[in-house]
């Protein structure tokens, strides 16, 4: 069904550094279970939002897909090809040409000493695209036009400090698309921008999806932009996707108590406010990913938790309705 990216049972555990006492006591090694067995598919030209609080594993998932880190377990397929463990540098380089990333911070993701021209020429040189300077210049101009930094001549010689936050993020997007990728991981691409220009940048990214046939993994803590921008949503909690489905199904009929709490926490858009998520209307803090609670990992915070069930048995993921999956023993009745 035109599946662009498929992730199967993906895990990433980071070892916790042990103190000398722990080594002497021969305590078993401990791990941060950042991503703890997630599976999902993204179809061609779909925008899939991975939503959750910080520390839930969404950025680690993005890094795994970008091949910036290796998975502990599980597999990643790009257009049916297993890319979980690329061996040679050549393979990684080839992969990075088709899978690109847009980072959260347009201020630090662009070298401040590079002019816009150099920022955009660098990936072309690394990947050997464009035989001559004039060919590369043409590609750079086209990329700037695509992100609507026009006329391109006005922008190529500017340094990043001569651009606004929104313009810098447009340059970062131009750099991501200049190699003509098929898949883009966008990690909080608008959360550091002024509220007034967030919709503009997301609108631009959507237009590029349509015009260039891109597919996105959109990583965000902000359900309101996920709702506006994406086709599918996966809600992450402590390394698991606890609810996933078509955006309208998840937003209009949330099944998991955590998704419901996140939705209740989304404030009305208010340009005066910098914080997006209010205090969640659920009890306690997110537990550490080193000591994940047994049973349903959300049970210590869940107001519906059932003693003898939720605290002992891990809920399997079920397709509750068409294109709507959930991981909760009591889905549909809470
Ligand atoms: Fe709450 Fe139990 Fe569902 Fe977990 S499985 S979310 S504890 S009701």
Write a brief caption for the model.
The chain contains eleven helices and twelve strands. It is 32% helix and 22% strand. Iron/sulfur cluster (SF4) is lined by residues 256-257, 296, 298-299, 302, 304-306, 310, 315, 328-330, 334.
Q: What order do the strands of the largest sheet run in, or round the barrel if closed?
A: 6-7-8-3-9-10-12-11
CATH uppermost class: Alpha Beta
CATH fold title: Rossmann fold
Count of runs of 4 or more consecutive helical residues: 11
The CATH homology group name = P-loop containing nucleotide triphosphate hydrolases
How would you describe this structure to a colleague?
By secondary structure, the protein is an alpha/beta fold. It has one domain: P-loop containing nucleotide triphosphate hydrolases (Rossmann fold). The chain contains eleven helices and twelve strands. The strands form two sheets. The protein has an eight-stranded mixed beta sheet with strand order 6-7-8-3-9-10-12-11, with helices on both faces. A hairpin with a 2-residue loop joins strand 4 and strand 5. The radius of gyration is 21 Å and the shape is globular. It starts with a strand and ends in an 8-residue tail after the last strand. About 1% of the residues have low confidence. The structure holds iron/sulfur cluster (SF4). The site of iron/sulfur cluster (SF4) has 15 residues, from loops.
């Amino acid at each position: 069904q035109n599946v662009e990216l498929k992730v199967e049972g993906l895990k990433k555990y980071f070892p916790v550094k042990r103190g000398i006492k722990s080594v002497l006591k021969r305590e078993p090694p401990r791990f941060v279970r950042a991503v703890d067995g997630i599976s999902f598919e993204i179809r061609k030209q779909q925008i899939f939002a991975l939503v959750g609080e910080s520390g839930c594993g969404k950025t680690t998932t993005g890094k795994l897909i970008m091949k910036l880190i290796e998975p502990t377990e599980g597999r990643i397929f790009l257009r049916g090809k297993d890319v979980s463990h690329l061996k040679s540098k050549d393979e990684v380089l080839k992969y990075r040409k088709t899978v690109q990333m847009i980072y959260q911070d347009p201020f630090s993701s662009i070298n401040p000493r590079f002019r816009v021209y150099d920022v955009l020429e660098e990936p072309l040189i690394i990947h050997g695209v464009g035989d001559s300077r004039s060919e590369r210049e043409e590609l750079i101009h086209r990329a700037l036009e695509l992100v609507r930094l026009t006329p391109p001549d006005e922008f190529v010689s500017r340094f990043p400090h001569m651009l606004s936050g929104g313009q810098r993020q447009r340059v970062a997007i131009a750099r991501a698309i200049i190699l003509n990728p098929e898949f883009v991981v966008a990690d909080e691409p608008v959360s550091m921008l002024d509220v007034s220009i967030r919709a503009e940048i997301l609108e631009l990214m959507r237009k590029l999806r349509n015009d260039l046939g891109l597919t996105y993994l959109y990583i965000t803590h902000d359900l309101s932009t996920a709702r506006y921008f994406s086709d599918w949503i996966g809600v992450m909690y402590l390394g698991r996707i606890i609810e996933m489905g078509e955006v309208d199904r998840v937003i209009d009929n949330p099944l998991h108590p955590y998704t419901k709490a996140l939705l209740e926490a989304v404030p009305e858009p208010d340009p005066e406010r910098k914080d997006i998520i209010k205090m969640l209307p659920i009890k306690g803090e997110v537990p550490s990913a080193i000591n994940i609670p047994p049973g349903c990992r959300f049970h210590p915070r869940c107001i519906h938790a059932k003693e003898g069930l939720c605290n002992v048995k891990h809920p399997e993921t079920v397709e509750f309705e068409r294109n709507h999956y959930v991981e909760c023993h009591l889905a549909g009745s809470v």
